[in-house]
What we know:
Blueprint: E1 2-7, H1 19-26, E2 31-36, E3 49-50, E4 60-61, H2 63-73, E5 78-89, H3 92-98, E6 103-107, H4 116-125, E7 127-132, H5 142-153, H6 163-168, E8 187-188, E9 191-192, H7 202-220
Parallel strand pairs: 1-2, 1-6, 5-6, 5-7
Antiparallel strand pairs: 3-4, 8-9
Bound molecules: 6-chloroguanine.
Amino acid sequence: MRIDVISIFPDYLAPLDLSLPGRAQRAGLLEVVVHDLRDWTHDRHRTVDDTPYGGGAGMVMRPEPWGEALDAVCRDDSIVVVPTPSGIPFTQRHAESLSAASHLVYCCGRYEGIDQRVIDEANDRWTVRELSLGDFVLNGGEVAALAMTEAIVRLIPGFMGNPESLAEESHTAEGLLEYPVYTKPASWRGREVPEVLLSGHHGQIAAWRREEALRRTRERRPDLAP
Ligand code: 6GU
């Protein structure tokens, strides 16, 4: 997989060379290139934003540098990902689907957003996904692009050491939150590991875990509970 990131704060994406995406790059499964949007400006001040038509607070990113950047970076097989609080909620399903892509291009907007014509034109030429991390506001798309990339890259086939840990975790097919987990010591500061987990009864352990997962899901995420 190849990932291009376009941002006015390319240093913000430095963590892509660390941790999991860094390991994927060294393993030859992933190539990441971060671009400074201002490389596609032509004025002395390298302007990327302007006041919104119709009035209102804040600044909007002008279309010209974005248009040139996407012309330069996109290929026939690109999926253009626009992180925005106005997007569709990003879920594990998106991570799974995007992990099969050959080329992702993140457009990291700042200010009040990117001129809509950039998104509309990209949508005519490539596949566009406007995605949100949740109902809160970040200052720009960079941190969201990092988070989405970590969720996507760990699903690239042949990357994670133990595929079973992918199957069991939260937000996968069963749709329940994960059950609580424990390790040694069995007694710690007067708190005991639940007896059943020490019992060796695999059937009882599976039943206990499913009940705890259900309890947690009902309590924390009633919208996901069966
Ligand atoms: Cl994807 N972008 C921004 N700027 N803010 C967010 C977000 C994305 N998801 C939640 N808040």
